[in-house]
Write a structure and sequence with these properties.
By secondary structure, the protein is mainly beta. Helices cover about 5% and strands about 35% of the residues. It is elongated.
């Protein structure tokens, strides 16, 4: 049953959001496909129901084009493994291209009826890299190493996209000696003491750490500027020296 919602974070410029298909609802397909997002229509009494589509949050455009099922669509990477998708846009309406940096609420295109659809609407979904079902704490759909969650609590302002990861950027303290990698995962080479930042070397000296260990000792203070998951779903933080494994080794300060 269609429902008109008052979203705290609007996706349609005029603010009218009539949800016609909720998250997880079963569609009439042979593979018992579950809907990975929510569908919205605009106000049919205003501009024939067409409306401009807004970016859910700031990020980088990683897809902007046409695919058979999605129609004209856009994907935005918000960092920390979070991606949002906007499907079935009007032909010729896309306002962004791959690589563009977008702001929250920026117009990225217009509602349409392209792709595998039966009528004009916007399909919107939120997904996270890896299996984060336990962090989400609710029903989710896992598909191709991405976890799709119900977007409504995020659109209503009840949840934040940072809640699922359990980590944020900012200041941390090392609680267990940890090595540093050149990328987010153990498949990357270690960063050795000679390549540590000047600040890291000074802290190690004051803490009585041993340079030959090539580790950050307990008590080190770090500034984490970026978060990423490795291919096993483990979270790593980027500091000036390199990438540090998060769980069990760092705590927020």
């Amino acid at each position: 049953m269609a429902e008109t919602l008052n979203l705290k974070i609007p996706l349609l410029k005029r603010g009218y959001h009539r949800m016609t298909l909720p998250f997880g609802s079963q569609k009439l397909r042979d593979d018992d496909y579950l809907h990975k997002g929510v569908d919205f229509t605009g106000n049919l009494n205003v501009s024939g129901g067409y409306d401009d589509i807004l970016a859910f949050a700031a990020g980088t455009v990683i897809t902007a084009g046409f695919e058979k099922d999605c129609g004209y669509w856009v994907r935005i990477d918000h960092g920390n493994g979070v991606i949002t998708r906007y499907m079935h846009m009007k032909k010729g309406s896309l306002k962004v291209k791959v690589g563009d940096k977008v702001k929250k609420g920026q117009v990225i295109g217009s509602m349409g009826a392209t792709g595998n659809v039966t009528g004009r609407h916007l399909h919107f979904d939120i997904s996270f890299s890896g299996d984060v079902a336990t962090k989400h704490g609710g029903f989710c759909i896992i598909n191709k190493n991405r976890t799709y969650v119900d977007p409504l609590p995020y659109l209503m302002g009840e949840k934040s996209i940072t809640d699922v990861t359990g980590y944020t950027t900012g200041n941390y303290k090392v609680i267990k000696a940890v090595n540093i990698r050149k990328g987010p995962g153990t498949k990357y080479d270690r960063v050795l003491y000679n390549s540590f930042s000047a600040n890291a070397k000074e802290q190690i000296k004051k803490l009585g750490g041993k340079p030959e260990d090539n580790d950050f000792p307990k008590g080190m203070k770090l500034s984490i500027s970026k978060l990423e998951q490795d291919d096993k779903g483990n979270w790593w933080g980027k500091c000036p020296t390199g990438w540090v494994y998060m769980k069990g080794y760092l705590e927020k300060r």
